[in-house]
C-alpha cells in the first residue's frame, strides 16, 4: 500500500505512473464563471445532448468534461486525488468502491426519490442508464447462417468451424477495462458456459480490446466477425453501421450494466454536481425519458425486465471481485483460458 | 358545603395515583421496548457480520504452502441485506495482511478460536460494528493464526433504531393516554356510590327520616349503618317531641273548654261592667289558648299523616266548595263575603283530610284577619300541570320583609297582634303542599289592600 486509507485494489494500477491517462477532454459553455468538472467513462458525443440541455438552463455555468477509462477514473480519484466534482462511470464496482471507501458525498434532492431503490446505493451512487452486454456479429460473415441466440450456440458455431473464426473474434481485455472486468466477473458468477466460451475464444487467438467502440468498429470494418460483451447501447447508437453489424442479446441471460454518477467528497462545486446528477436522474427516470436521453429507456422496475435480463446489483457484493486476491486469481484464470499460446 | 372541612378529594387523589402509576409504567415500557429492540438489532447485525466472516474463513485454502482466500461473493453481498451500509474487511495471517483494508484495526489481543469478538469502533470517519473470527493454524510447521474481520457502518441500523424508538415512544404515549382515560373512569366509578348516596340523602324532603335501604359497596356499609342509626335516633326524638306536644295540647284543650263554659255562664250572671270586661278578656284568652291547642293537634296530625302519605283522587273544586259552605256561617258573623270563583273540577292525587286541613287553615286565617264587611275571594286555577287554590283577603297584607319567614312555626305577621292565633296555620298549609309535591306561595295584592295565599298541587 503506497498510501494509507486507499483501497487495496489500487496497487494494480500503481504501475500506471503518477498521472492518469485521459482519452479526451472538452469544455462546454462559457470560458468564465462556474465550472463543473466531470470525469467520465462515457464518450463525449453520447452525453453531449444532456450536457447541452443542462447548460441551456444555467447561463454562466460551464462543464469541463474529461473522458478516461474506468480504471483510470479510479486511479485519478482514489490514488491521485485529482480535482473533480463528480464521476460518471460504467464500472459499477469501482463507483461502489469509491462510495464505500468514503470518496463520495451523499446527495438528496427533490429528484432523487425518482430513482428506484435498486438503482440508488446509499444516496451516493445514482444509476442513470441500464445497458446490456451484447454479442455483436458481422452481418456479412454470418449471411446464410442462423445467428447464435445463446452463448452455447456461439460456442458450438465457433467450435464447428475454428479455421474460419481464427483471429476473427474479439472481447474486452479484462485486465485493462473496468467494464470488461465487471461483465466478465458477473458472467463467471452467473454461468459455467463463460469459461468454456473463454477457452474457445482463446483457442481462436481472440483479440483483446480496451473499449466497446473499438470492438464495434472492428466488426463493422471486417477485422473480426464476433465481438463478445459489447455495450449494446453503443452498438445500437451506431446507426450508420446498422447494415453491417448485428446486435444479439443472449437469450439465456443478458447482463445489464448501470451507468452511475457519484459526487466526490472533494468537489468544489457540489451544488452544480448535485444539479447535474438531478438532471441525469430526471432525464433517465422520467416517464417517458427526456427526448435527448441517449440510452434505451430504463425499466421502472426489475420485474418489468424479461426473465433473461439480469441487472447487476449495486452494493457491497461488487466489492468482492475488487479484492486483490480474488482479482489476481480471476485474472490468472482468465489469462490461462484466453491466452493459449 | 357550609361547615364542612375539606381534606383533599378521593377522586383527585385516586386519579393522580393512577395517572402517576401509568406514567411510570409507560416510561418503563418505552425503556424496555427500546432496550430490547436495540439489543435485538445489534444481535442481528452481529450474527450477519459473523456469518460473513465465517464464510470468508471457509474460503481460506492452503496451496503449496501458501495461504490464500477466495472471497465468496455472498460474504459481502449478504451484508447489503441488512442495510445499504459501507462494508470493510481484512484478512490477516500472523502479522501480514493477506487482503482487504490494511488499516482496519485488529482487536488486541485477538479473541480465541471459538470466541468471535464484536466491537463498535470508528473507521474512515464513521462508527462501524466489527466482527472478528480467528483460527489457529500451522504454516510450514510454525503455529500462526488467521484473523478475519468484517465491519459495516451503522447508519441503517441507527436509522432503524430511531424508527423503532419513535414507535416505542408512540406505544408508551398511547399506553399512557389509554391508562389516563381508564384512571379517570376508574376514579369516577369508584366514588359513584358515595356520590349517589350523598345525592339521595340531599334529595330527601325535610320530613323524610326513613333509613337508607339501597345496596351500597361493603366499604360504605359502616357509614350507611351509622347514618341509619343516626336517622333513627333523630326520628325517635322528633316523634317523641311531637307526641308530647299533641298530648299536652289535648290535655290542655279539654279543661279549657270547661273553663270557657264556666266563664260564659258567669258572664251571664254578673252585672257590673268591670267584671263583665274582665270575663270577656278571660274568654278571649281561653279562645286563643284553645285555638292554639287545636292547631298544635292539627299540626301533629298533619305531621303523622305526611309521614305515611296515602294518596287517593280528590277534586279540589268540590273540597274547596264544601269548606266554603261550612265556613260561610262563621264569615257571616263578620259580614265577610266568601266568593268562590271556579266550578270546573280540579282533580289531584292526595290525602283528602290533609288537603282539607290546609285549605281550612288558610280560610280560617283569611276570615279571622279580614276586616268586617270585606271580601274573601277563593280561586281555582290550572297552570302548567299544577292545580292551584288561591285565597285573597283584604286584611292589609303582610309586612314585605316577613314574607319569607311566615311559614315557619309560630311566626305570625307583625300586624296580626290583637287577633286570636298561633302562627301554625301557614306552616300546616306549606307542609301539606310540600308532602304532595307542591308548594305554598304568599304574596301581597298589587294595591296593598290584602294578601293572596296560593296552594299549589300537581294535577292528577
TrEMBL record, chain A:
SUPFAM superfamilies: Periplasmic binding protein-like II. It comes from the Bacteria. Keywords: Signal. It holds the Pfam family SBP_bac_11. This is ABC transporter substrate-binding protein. The lineage of its organism: Bacteria, Pseudomonadati, Pseudomonadota, Alphaproteobacteria, Rhodobacterales.
From TrEMBL, chain B:
Residues 188-239 form the HAMP domain. It comes from the Bacteria. It is found in: Membrane. The keyword Transmembrane helix applies. Its main location: membrane. Keywords: Kinase, Membrane, Phosphoprotein, Transferase, Transmembrane, Transmembrane helix, Two-component regulatory system. PROSITE patterns: HAMP (PS50885), HIS_KIN (PS50109). The chain crosses the membrane at residues 14-33, 168-187. Residues 247-460 form the Histidine kinase domain. It is an enzyme of class 2 (transferase). Its EC number is 2.7.13.3. One of its GO terms (molecular function) is kinase activity. This is histidine kinase.
